[in-house]
Amino acid sequence: MSSHREHSVFLFAASLCAAIVAACAGPASTERPEREAEEEKRILERYEAQFQPSKYDPPVEVIEHLVQVDSTQNAKEGKEEKSTPLEMTQGFRIQVLSTTEIDTANALKAELAFLPEHVGIYVIYDSPYYKVRVGDFLTRLDANPLLKSLLEQGYSDAWIVADRVVKNPPRRSPPAPRRMMNE
User: Fold this and answer.
1) DSSP-based three-state secondary structure for 96
2) What would the pLDDT profile of 69-126 be if each residue is shown by its tens digit?
3) Phi, psi values for residue 71, rounded to 5°
4) Around Cβ 148, how many Cβ atoms within 10 Å?
5) pLDDT higher for 42 or 68?
6) pLDDT in tens, 13-37
7) CA-based nearest residue to 84, from 13, 178, 183, 168
8) DSSP H helical ranges for the chain
9) What is the pTM of this model?
10) What is the C-alpha separation between 15 and 63, in angstroms, rounded?
11) Would you list the DSSP string of 116-160?
């Protein structure tokens, strides 16, 4: 009789263990409901649309910049071409345009070639926008005369923005002369 009782206790204990293991294992299916998957996808898309990798770029204090030099003139004078480090600092530039089209930004950069040689013209990519900015000004007051000139010339979206600027920037090469159609 005791062996029958031991056998019943053993079966009861085994059944209880099996029930506990089954309850802890969760549902038989590991698939999530479609609604949860769609919600997770929407959240991920929202964060991806807002993500701007350029915000995580390390700040650049000094950049290497090759100064454009006429190599034939240097050869005549016996000079070598060299790179000059440019020091960056906080300052101001004038933003003339912000667009998602790189071709539009580059066309405006070419159009602004009439600016004096000492005024830098930059196309800056800040995802998803290409921003055309001009000048390297240490103060907002220094930028005002060029802003006024650009506004008078029809660049009505121009405005002064805080930006990292080049201290004592090199002159850019003057634009090549344009040929007339009848030449």
Assistant:
1) strand
2) 444 445 555 555 555 677 889 999 999 999 999 999 999 999 999 998 889 999 999 9
3) -65, -30
4) 11
5) 42
6) 777 777 777 776 655 555 567 888 8
7) 168
8) 2-25, 34-50, 71-77, 102-111, 140-152
9) 0.50
10) 73
11) -TTS-EEEEEETTEEEEEEEEESSHHHHHHHHHHHHHTT-TT-EE
Determine whether 165 is exposed, middle or buried from the number of CB atoms within 10 Å of its CB (0-12, 13-18, 19+).
buried
Determine the 3-state secondary structure of 107 from DSSP: helix
Tell which residue, 131, 69, 76, has the closest CA to residue 102.
131
How far apart (Å, rounded) are the C-alpha atoms in residues 63 and 88? 8
d(CA 73, CA 50): 50
Residue 120 near residue 132 (C-beta atoms within 8 A): no
Cα(84)–Cα(170) distance, integer angstroms: 9
Cα separation, 82 vs 80, in Å, equals 6
